[in-house]
Amino acid sequence: MANQQAQQPISSSFAAICLATAALTLGLIVFGAVVRVMESGLGCGNDWPLCNGAIFPPLDNIAAWIEWLHRLFALLIGFFGLATLALARRHYRRHDRPVLKLVGLAALLFVIQSALGAIVVFLDLPPTFVTLHLGVAMLLLAALLGALVMAIYAAPKPFAADSASTLAHINALFALLIILTGALVRGSGATLACAEWPLCNGGALLPLDQGALAVIHMIHRLSVAAMALSLFLMIRQVLQQRKETSIRLFALAAGGAYLLQTGSGAMFVFSAAGPAWGALHVGLAATVWGLLIILVAMERINHLSFARGDLKST
Questions:
Q1: Does 144 score more than 90 pLDDT?
Q2: Which residue ranges make up each domain of the chain?
Q3: Positive or negative, the Cα torsion across 187, 61, 283, 141?
Q4: Structure confidence by residue, pLDDT tens digits, 28-38
Q5: What is the dihedral of CA 277, 283, 287, 289, to 10 degrees?
Q6: CA-CA distance, 115 to 164, in Å (whole number)?
Q7: Other Cβ atoms closer than 10 A to 40
């Protein structure tokens, strides 16, 4: 049977706008990290969507401008998201319905994300809601990337699920866990609770006697170490079990970005929470997450094609 997905037309306009929206979402995540490390989360006070009761912040209030520009960036993504949804409905409502469903999910997540942003401001940046706010942003990025992959990728030689597939899913979950624990570290004030790296103060692996903040910080680091092992196993299995170059490249890219993410985390500690290193750390974490989501989506398409018998596995 011919590959059904390959026979369906690819909308270049949808692919372009969806990619742009995903890229802007990644940029917004990094911008949000800048807001946090610059201590500008309440730059506009407890007002939302206004800034200290005004449409524009005063020119001499840098913290307010950082927070205001972050909100403006989010509004820009809203417009791009509407265009993405309109194109998805136009091109995929009669076929490739999963693409339309994922874009619809992204639209819902954007609304939730915006509401959480307002709640975070109203409640003076509570750590739980700050973490949830970032988590929803990551799910929004995942939905957009998933829709993009499903719209443009056709499995050339489908294969059944195996250990490489399982490890890809595990690592995607690991990546999200690390992002959430990292946000909790920042939101709870545990950023410099462990001033040494890779172990905590005095070479402690799990500093139970150094207080809750040090424990929170080390749980994040231990999660990073566990994912490093899991990611290594995934890359090895992908290189052994996958012949497709694109899948191999995304696996290797995720591994490379993860090494950079870990290094930036160390530099964040060594620089006593330098803002540039903090923003880079979050950006690389989101990049790893995005690359793994793309990999998982490609695996999923191959599994579905194999199950339909589009092509025989090789």
A1: yes
A2: 1-154, 155-314
A3: positive
A4: 999 988 888 88
A5: 100
A6: 37
A7: 20
